[in-house]
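User: Predict structure, ligand DQA.
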Amino acid sequence: SEVFVLNGPNLGRLGSREPDVYGAADFEALTALCRDTARRLGLHAEVRQTDDEAELLSWLHEAADGRIPVVLNPAAFTHYSYAVRDAIAQRTAPLIEVHLSNPAAREEFRHNSVVAGVATGTIAGFGFLSYVLALQAIAELLAESGN
Ligand code: DQA
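Assistant: Predicted complex:
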């Protein structure tokens, strides 16, 4: 079955963006890893990235309407977007919040996530592995629920 892997602002710039924090691999490599991992788990990953809050909201609505599980890195929206939170709250399928870095170990403003309270769970601090672990969690949850 299908899973959305949705990425918020600035994540398309992986590889050149603060490589000391986010690593040297680019978004294309992350996309390939997610697709391969999903395939290995018997899933199909639809990987998307946007810098536009409205576009991310429309993808979350699409996931809610289609009952499609989501791996979401909301990037900076994590810390202030009540609109992203409200969109996530509409879904019924699992949604895992992921972060490459560990926001709890960084600046104060990153310590709060306004989306964590409506996510199924959160995986942070493992770089690209955060996405692999989240896809594994989705696969387990789908298997448990018989999907
Ligand atoms: C991030 C952490 C956020 O605080 C930051 O704004 C990002 C990336 C991460 O994956 O570590 O853009 O979500």
